[in-house]
Amino acid sequence: MKYAALLTLLTCVSLVSFGQTPGGSPSSAISKCTLTRAQSPEIRGVRLGLTAEQLLALFPDDANRQRINEAIKQSKRADRYGFARFDLQSGTEVRDPRFAGLSYLAIDMLDERVTGFHIGYAGPEWNSVDQFVAKLSEALRLPTALWEPAQGTQQSLKCDGFVVDAYVSRETAQNSVRVQDTSMSRVVSDRRETAKEKERQAFKP
């Protein structure tokens, strides 16, 4: 998938300690994003916490309904721990304006609720990640001064229960933004460990 490399990079960077701030100055350590998960940004109609039913209502065409329903079905497998990840695409017969200018739209769900979404834009070309972040902050009403440099041309905004990652590539004009519930990976990890412990307890030599 075309977004796989970016998604891997952003996932790795998200594991960096939330307490880190550029330069480690006392003033920057005090300032933090106080937005809650309920105040996380909505982009193209998608936001954290949407139910599967709400997502189906947003993207009612047959192809996307099939993708969503199949992902939900797969999430119920014992080895998926309630987690699903899938792409959504613009319909071929009726173009959905939500996909205008996008190269991809990927969704993460846990227990049939949106816990993350990753959106790639086919341009425009930004002079810097700072310029892209400034535009995102203005459009999504996010605190501009609290973004932190991450890896390469990426910046992250870490808030109360969610993180926003922004990435730009001047070589390809492929830009992306990801919004993720920070509790999701921990829940999945805990469920995986619980399942492993059950197997260990049930083991009979």
- Oligomeric form of this entry? single chain
Rounded mean pLDDT score: 85
Along the chain, the helix and strand elements come as HHHHEEEHEEEEH
Task: Give the neighbour order of strands across the main sheet.
Answer: 1-2-3-7-6-5-4
Number of strands: 7
Number of helices: 6
- Class from helix and strand fractions: alpha+beta
The helicity comes to 25-40%
Q: Which segments are poorly predicted (pLDDT under 50) over 5 or more consecutive residues?
A: 1-29
Shape: globular
Distance between the termini: 43 Å
Which strand-content bin applies to the residues? Answer: 15-25%
Radius of gyration: 18 Å
Topology readout:
Layout: H1 4-14, H2 26-30, H3 52-58, H4 62-75, E1 83-88, E2 102-110, E3 113-122, H5 129-140, E4 148-149, E5 154-158, E6 162-167, E7 174-181, H6 184-202
Antiparallel strand pairs: 1-2, 2-3, 3-7, 4-5, 5-6, 6-7
Plain-language structure description:
The chain is an alpha+beta fold and 205 residues long. Helices cover 33% and strands 22% of the residues. It is built from six helices and seven strands; from the N terminus they run ααααβββαββββα. It has helices at 4-14, 26-30, 52-58, 62-75, 129-140, 184-202, and strands at 83-88, 102-110, 113-122, 148-149, 154-158, 162-167, 174-181. It has a seven-stranded antiparallel beta sheet, with helices on both faces. The model is unreliable at 1-29 (pLDDT under 50).
